[in-house]
Amino acid sequence: MPELPEVETVRRGLAPAMEGRRIEKLVLNRADLRFPFPENLVETVERKTIVALGRRAKYLLIDLDDGMTIIAHLGMSGSWRVEEADNAQLPGWFHAPRNVNALHDHVVFQLSGSPARRVIYNDPRRFGFIKLSPKSELEADPGFAGLGPEPTGNRLDAAYLATRFVGKTQAIKSALLDQRNIAGLGNIYVCEALWRARLSPFRAAGHLVTPTGRPKGGLKTLVPAIRAVITEAIEAGGSTLRDHRKTDGTLGYFQHSFSAYDRTGSLARTRIAAAL
DNA sequence: ACATAGACCTGTTGGC
DNA sequence: TGCCAACAGGTCTATG
């Protein structure tokens, strides 16, 4: 499911449900997802209080009060949802969305408070994973070392990308998907950003840079396009194609704004429909 | 360094 | 209706 806007949407949904609460019990319904769970996962997080929810790239970060951080990646089909233990309905909250099969509820956080609350990680394809790291050592984690800048942050600009792309024959789409260049983009938002910048995905990344490593016009157009797409998608709650839900079970909305992704032949289809 | 293919999984979709 | 191939938002590895 998730590119950066979807993970950020999840973070914003989970934060008010989790922050300040204690993890009374962590239930693992299987031994692994993409990777085995850390052996000490349960004893590390149980009876700890959740301090804050963060995000880096497509990683969700759950900070605990002892300095440990739970690192969660949603893979292709991961989703999180919140349930009140007594099924009480909080404003804007929900029960399990219809498309979530409890068969794939792999991890359950039982939180303190009244009524008690469960936060559940569901992932049919199990490409997601959960790891642990001391917060102070996050940057050294293999998943984080070498990660490029956040698309909405100050570190991303045309000059920076020019240093990454200079001389490269690699297609610009491929270069944008490389998390070492920019963190958090995936297939959808790369397509959308390239479309907005009117750049072919097949164009060589190095073609957007002068031989001396200065950004050309196309790259200067691309950077704001990336920022705008990501910002708008976050505001829309991400894109729901199949799996992605906000943590309250409602749909993301940005798919209605797609200009490029999943629109192969749509102009032709429109013409045909109009002619009939 | 890069492109490509295959791997990991299950669920949905579209064509016949 | 049923079957089956193709495909899906993400990485990671092997191979050329």
In the CATH scheme, the class of the largest domain would be Alpha Beta
Biggest sheet details: 4 strands, antiparallel
CATH architectural category of the largest domain: Alpha-Beta Barrel
* Helical amount: 25-40%
The radius of gyration over CA amounts to 20 Å
By secondary-structure content and strand pairing, the structural class works out as alpha+beta
Bin the strand percentage: 15-25%
**Number of separate domains:** 2
Order of helical and strand elements: HEHEEEEEEEHHHHH
What does this molecule look like?
This protein is of the alpha+beta class. It folds into two domains: 4-140, N-terminal domain of MutM-like DNA repair proteins (Alpha-Beta Barrel), CATH 3.20.190; 158-235, Helicase, Ruva Protein, domain 3 (Orthogonal Bundle). It is 26% helix and 18% strand. It contains seven helices and eight strands. Strand 2 (50-56) and strand 3 (59-64) form a beta hairpin. It binds a DNA duplex (16 and 16 nucleotides) through helix 5.
Compact overview of the structure:
This protein is of the alpha+beta class and 276 residues long. It contains seven helices and eight strands, in the order αβαβββββββααααα.
Keywords:
276 residues; alpha+beta; N-terminal domain of MutM-like DNA repair proteins; Helicase, Ruva Protein, domain 3; 2 domains; 4-stranded antiparallel beta sheet; disordered C terminus; DNA-binding
